[in-house]
Amino acid sequence: EVQLVESGGGLVQPGGSLRLSCAASGFTFSSYWMSWVRQAPGKGLEWVANIKQDGSEKYYVDSVKGRFTISRDNAKNSLYLQMNSLRAEDTAVYYCARDLDNSADYWGQGTLVTVSS
Amino acid sequence: EIVLTQSPATLSLSPGERATLSCRASQSVSSYLAWYQQKPGQAPRLLIYDASNRATGIPARFSGSGSGTDFTLTISSLEPEDFAVYYCQQRSNWMYTFGQGTKLEIK
User: Fold this and answer.
1) Would you tell me which residues 26-65 of chain A have a C-beta closer than 8 angstroms to some C-beta of chain B?
2) Rounded Cα distance, A64 and B71, in Å
């Protein structure tokens, strides 16, 4: 059974940093692109970033470029999102998702990030 | 950036009725269009990928159609569990964007 479990969310002050993790199991992690998608409270879905199987390609939504870094450790079956210079508008539930056929076929349950003083 | 516009914003129907949801892209996305269902407090669930292919375990009452810029998600006969928010999503140059969502509510 495919499982994605996010962790690392919490309350952080504006300008602060946070590192999210996603533990993957039930599939060959190193064979898939992976993504982070977020959802602000009461709002729609926003794709944040994705990363190729070997980590050689990474893409970001414009609003996080230069502040967020996506990475992975295939030996640990883990995906990460390093978030720096956080802003109030980064407040959201962050989902880890597996990419397949131009879509995201499995999602974690999400971790809440709140940026507030 | 490709913008996806979903309509209507809210759709009010009764169980057993047919639902038709629309997604329009600001430029062609070929067939790289997916649909998701999201219920309150839950993660999104993939319904349709590449415009018309049902994801694993998705009931046959869900179908997708379209190509280029105009796409449709059809639910042939609504079940009580189908009332939720639906999002379309496209991939272009390895980056994704989502539509703003259509809320399907019980009439």
Assistant:
1) 35, 37, 44-47, 50, 57, 59, 61-62
2) 29
Q: Taking the CB of residue B16, how many other CB atoms lie within 10 A of it?
A: 9
* Residue A73 near chain B (CB below 8 Å): no
Please provide residue A87's backbone torsions phi and psi, each rounded to the nearest 5 degrees. Answer: -120, 165
d(CA A20, CA A7): 6
Structure tokens at A81: 């999102």
Q: What is the pLDDT of residues B43-88, one digit of tens each?
A: 999 999 999 999 999 999 999 999 999 999 999 999 999 999 999 9
Q: Is the distance from CB of B21 to CB of B72 less than 8 angstroms?
A: yes
Q: Do A47 and B44 touch (CB under 8 A)?
A: no
Cα A106 to Cα A3, A82, B47, B100, distances in angstroms? 8, 21, 11, 20
Yes or no, beta carbons of A104 and B53 under 8 Å apart: no
Q: Whole-angstrom Cα distance, residue A84 to residue A35?
A: 18
Question: Which of A45, A64, A105, A106 to probe by mutation at the B interface, max B CB count within 10 Å?
Answer: A45
d(CA B48, CA B34): 5
Q: Does A104 touch chain B (CB under 8 A)?
A: yes
Model confidence at B18, pLDDT cuts 50, 70, 90, reads very high
The dihedral of CA B6, B8, B9, B11: what is its sign? negative
Provide block-wise average pLDDT over 10 residues at a time, chain A (117 residues): 98 98 98 97 97 96 97 98 98 97 94 97
